[in-house]
Amino acid sequence: MGRTRVAAVVVVLALVVLWYAVRGVAALWSPAAGLVGRLTPWTVRLRAWVLSAPATCTYIVLFTAGTFVQKTAPPKLIDLLTKVDSTNLWRLGDDPATVLVTSALWVADRGSGLAAYIAVFATVVAWAERRYGTPRLVLIAVSAHVLGSLCTARVERWAIDTGHAPHKLALATDVGVSYIMVGSCAAAVLVMHGWVRWAGVLALLVTVAVPVFASRTIWDLGHLLATLIGLGTAVLTLLVGPLRTPPPLTEPWAPRPPVPTVGEPV
């Protein structure tokens, strides 16, 4: 799986380099100019989408890079690093500010499910950032991660003190981007409309609520808490001001004149 992810990144980078190479020769080679003309509207939309969700796209780059570190570094080293960066009771009591930041830079289970995380962040969470705006989306995401982690830790402490969980739970590895994801997705579902909203509600119920009753683990409860906190924070931000109009998926400047092809008068 690690080699597959590396190969996927290499392919993406190769496509980017190839695209700019084709654009570079478009003025000299008519087939390249035709290809650029057909694909440019789509690349313009993609670039506009990325630029309108800078926080989400930057975060995707960060946790993807962290995942590749996990896949290429010695497993024992990664186990040590993720345990040190965990929001478990031991680390929260020792250095809470640091672990609340660093724990959000790792994908749990040694990068398991990276493609799914990227897909959800690049679509649903990016869409939410376009509607809420970057400052409000960051507030929602941070609240879901920080408050979700602290509330989960409080439940852990209660479970250990009352004998419902072993003492080793205080040293468990607990990192990941999922609290930010589910909190942001809840905010997105809140402002969706029609059947899309109902589909989003169903997805959250299946992936967040059902596991709490099916497996009854502290981690599943943490996801539910992060979802509710993200939803509540989103409601509060909407009391401050309305949703913003999403930026258009077009260039903010006038389009350039077409590139002349070989033999065409300038």
Can you give a write-up of this model?
The chain has 2 domains: 1-51, no CATH class; 54-240. Helix content is 74%, strand content 0%. The protein has helices at residues 2-25, 30-51, 54-72, 75-84, 89-94, 96-102, 108-111, 114-132, 134-161, 178-190, 194-214, 218-240. Helix 9 (134-161) packs antiparallel against helix 12 (218-240), helix 10 (178-190) runs antiparallel to helix 11 and helix 10 (178-190) packs across helix 12. The longest helix has 28 residues, at 134-161. The N and C termini lie far apart (51 Å).
Average pLDDT reading: 87
Largest sheet: none
Low confidence ranges: none
Count of discrete alpha- or pi-helical segments spanning 4 or more residues: 12
Number of strands: 0
Query: What is the CA-CA span between the terminal residues?
Result: 51 Å
Query: What's the order of the H and E elements?
Result: HHHHHHHHHHHH
User: Helicity range of the residues?
Assistant: over 70%
Précis, in short:
The chain is mostly helical and 266 residues long. The chain contains twelve helices and no strands. The longest helix has 28 residues, at 134-161.
What is this structure's SSE topology?
Blueprint: H1 2-25, H2 30-51, H3 54-72, H4 75-84, H5 89-94, H6 96-102, H7 108-111, H8 114-132, H9 134-161, H10 178-190, H11 194-214, H12 218-240
Helix pairs in contact: 1-2, 3-8, 8-9, 8-10, 9-10, 9-12, 10-11, 10-12, 11-12
